[in-house]
């Protein structure tokens, strides 16, 4: 059934197909059809002080403005991550900015944090019925904000979204905001996470609830900078790391149409690369931090590989476009049935 739907959707330009799918999902949810079709895997996991319905979440970027959380929650996810949201609304890059590479089950995007801004997202979460699964919010900086002033943008988002979020992800790894990935390094990273952790502590004291803070990283990091990055995050006391965002590497799509488009590559060609980052991170940090893996999960096996490499939870974006919602339930079921001695569970 999904393969026919996909064939029809793939006749449309990628962003049009996305908007059409989201509108259909919203319509089906309003009519109550999603609840009839839904058969979520219930395999609760306690992490970060939250209960995840299962280990499979929606990765950031598909619902940047939390406009579709009701329908998305009924696709069987154990949690959703919305955003990336920035303080002010911004249009993102010019279209076309999203490209399919079907022969590799991959996408290249250079969306550029197109979003309706933090006030809209706060309003959405305040006024819409809240799904019963955790909602993480992924935050970023506006394109016109310099890296020197980036902390101000992240603090603005953290404060505005604190009460609405089950967890907050600091996105330092989009390749489509010029210079953003430089914030993953050295003193810039130290200053940024120190400032954010200080604000988190102040908000937790004020509101009596400690919202977990995670950092999302790129896959294009060599081993030494990766361990330095992890050390900085652990020393600052962040609660978790999401690995990974999209890659700039084009090896996996060489020779394919669109392979040379500027942007981040996701899907199958990213699978091994991001699993490798997860494995290296887990080996370095031990049990001290929650690890959420994203990158090329398109089957139960891919999800199992990520958890065997050290992930506590996984997230999917591109696999959903190519495989449809069945990839969510298949993966969640496989992870729920994993023998206890394999896989990983952080102490957080
Ligand atoms: C079209 C598109 C838009 C994305 N937007 C964001 C974003 O706004 N913030 C973010 O942290 N990641 C974003 N991502 C990255 C995904 O969350 C995910 O980390 C990455 O695509 C790897 O997972 P996948 O192979 O399952 O897609 C985006 C990915 C795609 C394909």
From TrEMBL:
<keyword id="KW-0665">Pyrimidine biosynthesis</keyword>
<feature type="binding site">
    <location>
        <position position="171"/>
    </location>
    <ligand>
        <name>FMN</name>
    </ligand>
</feature>
<protein>
    <recommendedName>
        <fullName>Dihydroorotate dehydrogenase (quinone)</fullName>
        <ecNumber>1.3.5.2</ecNumber>
    </recommendedName>
</protein>
<dbReference type="InterPro" id="IPR005719">
    <property type="entry name" value="Dihydroorotate_DH_2"/>
</dbReference>
<dbReference type="InterPro" id="IPR001295">
    <property type="entry name" value="Dihydroorotate_DH_CS"/>
</dbReference>
<feature type="binding site">
    <location>
        <position position="84"/>
    </location>
    <ligand>
        <name>FMN</name>
    </ligand>
</feature>
<comment type="function">
    <text>Catalyzes the conversion of dihydroorotate to orotate with quinone as electron acceptor.</text>
</comment>
<dbReference type="GO" id="GO:0006207">
    <property type="term" value="P:'de novo' pyrimidine nucleobase biosynthetic process"/>
</dbReference>
<keyword id="KW-0285">Flavoprotein</keyword>
<feature type="binding site">
    <location>
        <begin position="109"/>
        <end position="113"/>
    </location>
    <ligand>
        <name>substrate</name>
    </ligand>
</feature>
<feature type="binding site">
    <location>
        <begin position="245"/>
        <end position="246"/>
    </location>
    <ligand>
        <name>substrate</name>
    </ligand>
</feature>
<feature type="binding site">
    <location>
        <position position="216"/>
    </location>
    <ligand>
        <name>FMN</name>
    </ligand>
</feature>
<comment type="similarity">
    <text>Belongs to the dihydroorotate dehydrogenase family. Type 2 subfamily.</text>
</comment>
<dbReference type="InterPro" id="IPR013785">
    <property type="entry name" value="Aldolase_TIM"/>
</dbReference>
<keyword id="KW-0472">Membrane</keyword>
<keyword id="KW-0288">FMN</keyword>
<feature type="binding site">
    <location>
        <position position="64"/>
    </location>
    <ligand>
        <name>substrate</name>
    </ligand>
</feature>
<dbReference type="InterPro" id="IPR050074">
    <property type="entry name" value="DHO_dehydrogenase"/>
</dbReference>
<dbReference type="GO" id="GO:0005737">
    <property type="term" value="C:cytoplasm"/>
</dbReference>
<feature type="binding site">
    <location>
        <position position="244"/>
    </location>
    <ligand>
        <name>FMN</name>
    </ligand>
</feature>
<dbReference type="InterPro" id="IPR012135">
    <property type="entry name" value="Dihydroorotate_DH_1_2"/>
</dbReference>
<comment type="pathway">
    <text>Pyrimidine metabolism; UMP biosynthesis via de novo pathway; orotate from (S)-dihydroorotate (quinone route): step 1/1.</text>
</comment>
<dbReference type="GO" id="GO:0106430">
    <property type="term" value="F:dihydroorotate dehydrogenase (quinone) activity"/>
</dbReference>
<feature type="binding site">
    <location>
        <begin position="317"/>
        <end position="318"/>
    </location>
    <ligand>
        <name>FMN</name>
    </ligand>
</feature>
<dbReference type="Pfam" id="PF01180">
    <property type="entry name" value="DHO_dh"/>
</dbReference>
<feature type="binding site">
    <location>
        <begin position="60"/>
        <end position="64"/>
    </location>
    <ligand>
        <name>FMN</name>
    </ligand>
</feature>
<feature type="binding site">
    <location>
        <position position="138"/>
    </location>
    <ligand>
        <name>FMN</name>
    </ligand>
</feature>
<keyword id="KW-0560">Oxidoreductase</keyword>
<comment type="subunit">
    <text>Monomer.</text>
</comment>
<dbReference type="GO" id="GO:0005886">
    <property type="term" value="C:plasma membrane"/>
</dbReference>
<feature type="binding site">
    <location>
        <position position="296"/>
    </location>
    <ligand>
        <name>FMN</name>
    </ligand>
</feature>
<feature type="binding site">
    <location>
        <position position="176"/>
    </location>
    <ligand>
        <name>substrate</name>
    </ligand>
</feature>
<feature type="binding site">
    <location>
        <position position="171"/>
    </location>
    <ligand>
        <name>substrate</name>
    </ligand>
</feature>
<dbReference type="GO" id="GO:0044205">
    <property type="term" value="P:'de novo' UMP biosynthetic process"/>
</dbReference>
<keyword id="KW-1003">Cell membrane</keyword>
<feature type="binding site">
    <location>
        <position position="267"/>
    </location>
    <ligand>
        <name>FMN</name>
    </ligand>
</feature>
<dbReference type="InterPro" id="IPR005720">
    <property type="entry name" value="Dihydroorotate_DH_cat"/>
</dbReference>
<feature type="active site" description="Nucleophile">
    <location>
        <position position="174"/>
    </location>
</feature>
<feature type="domain" description="Dihydroorotate dehydrogenase catalytic">
    <location>
        <begin position="45"/>
        <end position="330"/>
    </location>
</feature>
């Amino acid at each position: 059934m999904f393969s026919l739907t996909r064939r029809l959707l793939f006749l449309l330009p990628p962003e049009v197909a996305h908007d059409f799918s989201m509108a259909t999902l919203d319509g089906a949810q309003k009519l109550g059809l999603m609840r009839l079709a839904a058969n979520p895997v219930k395999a609760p996991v306690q992490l970060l002080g939250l209960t995840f319905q299962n280990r499979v979440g929606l990765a950031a970027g598909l619902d940047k403005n939390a406009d579709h959380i009701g329908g998305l929650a009924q696709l069987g996810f154990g949690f959703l991550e919305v955003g990336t949201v920035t303080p002010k609304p911004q249009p993102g890059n010019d279209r076309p900015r999203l490209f399919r590479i079907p022969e590799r089950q991959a996408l290249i995007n250079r969306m550029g944090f197109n979003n309706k801004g933090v006030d809209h997202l706060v309003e959405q979460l305040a006024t819409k019925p809240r799904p019963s699964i955790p909602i993480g919010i992924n935050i970023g900086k506006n394109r016109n904000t310099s890296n020197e002033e980036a902390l101000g943008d992240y603090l603005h988002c953290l404060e505005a979204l604190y009460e609405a979020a089950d967890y907050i992800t600091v996105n330092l790894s989009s390749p489509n905001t010029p210079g953003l990935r430089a914030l993953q390094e050295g003193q810039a990273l130290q200053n940024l996470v120190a400032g954010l952790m200080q604000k988190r502590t102040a908000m937790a004291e004020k509101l009596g609830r400690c919202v977990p803070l995670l950092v999302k990283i790129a896959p294009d990091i060599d081993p030494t900078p990766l361990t330095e990055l992890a050390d900085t995050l652990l020393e600052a006391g962040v609660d978790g790391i999401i690995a990974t965002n999209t890659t700039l590497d084009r090896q996996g799509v060489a020779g394919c149409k669109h392979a040379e488009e500027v942007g981040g590559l996701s899907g199958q060609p990213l699978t091994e690369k991001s699993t490798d980052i997860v494995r290296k991170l887990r080996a370095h940090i031990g049990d001290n931090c929650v690890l959420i893996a994203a990158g090329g999960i398109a089957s139960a096996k891919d999800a199992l590989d990520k958890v065997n490499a050290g992930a506590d939870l996984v997230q999917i974006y591109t696999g959903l476009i190519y495989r449809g919602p069945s990839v969510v339930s298949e993966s969640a079921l496989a992870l729920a049935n994993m023998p206890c001695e394999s896989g990983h569970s952080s102490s957080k």
